[in-house]
Specification:
The protein has helices spanning 2-15, 39-47, 63-76, 151-155, 165-187, 204-213, 225-228, 235-245, and strands at residues 24-28, 53-57, 83-90, 108-115, 138-139, 162-163. The protein has 250 residues and is α/β, with parallel strands linked by helices. The chain is globular, with a radius of gyration of 18 Å.
């Protein structure tokens, strides 16, 4: 919530929106302050967003995209007028520093955006998907109801992130590239129409492989993974923020 607050305040300031105008507050995260109350409720209290309905959305590296698409539905159906969407992670709390295959990859960060209905432009198309059969490829076994905190779970190092890197690479490249193709088809666009592609910042090899499969040249791909590592649910919103700030996205 510390990182989420900083990102949220900056987004509200840039949008010229007071926190009390926000009626929906979603925080995408897999590393909340605590299991409950939600980080969104803790953030609401800090910001004074007293009119907001608040909840966390847990979708790991898809967290910021899933959160934005969820907020979009509330805005489209008129249930909400202004939404604050935040992606925030402190993955350094869950990496095993003795496991060099994972600890060097992940980082901490937060990004945020204010969303509201627009008369022109906006979100043209979206695509979502999940594959529960790959649940064990990237997971943290401990901390939930299956393996609650105990001496045994701590001794077995169940409260740390575990990853099969080779399998994650294959799943990520195929899943992201296929999603790019589907969303372009839905929007009636081609790769040539895209000025800037902002992928999840997992690692540069995945990003390069996705861009190649999606027929997007790397000069059109926004990359900042070398500065922050994989910040999971915060990744896309941090990259979007920096792309706008640097003038890559108008």
């Amino acid at each position: 919530s510390d990182l989420a607050e900083a990102a949220a305040r900056d987004a509200l300031k840039r949008a010229g929106v007071d926190a009390k105008e926000i009626d929906l507050l979603i925080v995408g995260t897999t590393s909340p302050d605590m299991l409950f109350p939600s980080t969104a409720c803790l953030l609401q209290q800090r910001l004074g967003a007293s009119s907001a309905t608040c909840f966390d959305l847990s979708a790991a590296c898809s967290g910021s995209v899933f959160s934005m698409i969820t907020a979009q539905q509330f805005l489209l159906n008129g249930r909400c007028k202004k939404a604050l969407v935040v992606g925030a992670e402190v993955l350094s709390s869950f990496v095993d520093w003795s496991d060099r295959s994972t600890c060097v990859l992940f980082g901490d960060g937060a990004g945020a955006c204010v969303m509201a209905p627009v008369s022109q432009g906006g979100i043209f198309a979206t695509d979502m998907g999940s594959d529960g059969t790959a649940a064990g490829v990237l997971c943290m076994p401990g901390g939930g109801s299956k393996y609650p905190p105990s001496h045994a779970s701590v001794d077995q190092r169940l409260h740390f992130l575990r990853m099969d890197g080779t399998e994650v690479f294959k799943l990520a490249v195929r899943g992201m590239a296929d999603s790019v193709k589907r969303v372009l088809d839905t929007a009636g666009l081609t790769p040539a129409d895209i000025d800037c592609f902002i992928p999840h910042q997992a690692n540069i090899r995945i990003i390069e492989a996705v861009a190649k499969r999606a027929n997007l040249p790397m000069e059109k791909v926004f990359v900042n993974v070398e500065r922050y590592g994989n910040t999971s649910a915060a990744s896309n919103l941090i990259a979007l923020y920096e792309a706008v700030k640097e003038g890559v996205v108008k």
